[in-house]
Amino acid sequence: MASQRSTTSQATTGEKRGRSSALEMGPRKKPFVGCYNARTSQDPLVHHGRHFGRSVHAFCNVQTLVTNGIALMSEDIDVNDESLTAIERKEYGVFKELLRMIPSMEARLMESSEEMVTTIAELIQKGINGARADDTKGVKSAIIDWITPKGQSLNPHIPRNVKSGRGFNHGRTGALLCPAGLDWANMETRTKLVNGQIQVAGDQWPIFLYANYTYDAEDPWNGLLRSGLLVSAFKHIFTSPSSVDQEPKATR
């Protein structure tokens, strides 16, 4: 019996570990939402999805998140259960936050048919994708003003709604994207970044993330994520585009 329980436990664990990750990019194509199609843009779930994407997770696959979350809830597993891997705990925590943000979401999911659960996930995904698209489109244009030194112009000019000519292909954007610890002013380094001889790894922070674009090799955490560009992007998305240029007012 002990051997049988062990085998069953291993099979269950293996099945659980084999689930797809929900914390990856969700579907981009416009979802089919069945009977909700006529009022999709007004459905509250779309608006909840926009808020969830901005404040919790911008790139998750909601269908997978909900499917995996329901499976764990049905097993009465706690988010801190030791049988879960680190990524499963993180994913389950994101799912729990989704339930917390949307009124009666847990009861609605548990009482709905599989088809309705799919529809719910698609509506939330639509909100996430829409918010991300709106935000990136707005920032893509506004950031030209933020990176242009006051009283000057960029040379060569960068069109607001065109992606080409940015990145390492432009002196100003290249300097901001240059990995901390590398010297963009060094022509050899710059050339290798432009032609791809230097491959930038995901754990190499770009210099624009640091306060005043200054990197301290002795203390790499000093000033990280305190850049004025990040503050401007936050204001643009979470308050209003016009708030970026407004001076903060004193409050009592």
TrEMBL record:
Top-level division of the source organism's lineage: Eukaryota
InterPro entries registered for this protein in UniProt: DUF6698 (IPR046521)
Low complexity composition bias: residue spans: 1-13
Region entry Disordered, spans: 1-27
Name of the protein described by the UniProt record: Uncharacterized protein
Organism: Scleroderma citrinum Foug A
Lineage, broadest ranks: Eukaryota, Fungi, Dikarya, Basidiomycota, Agaricomycotina
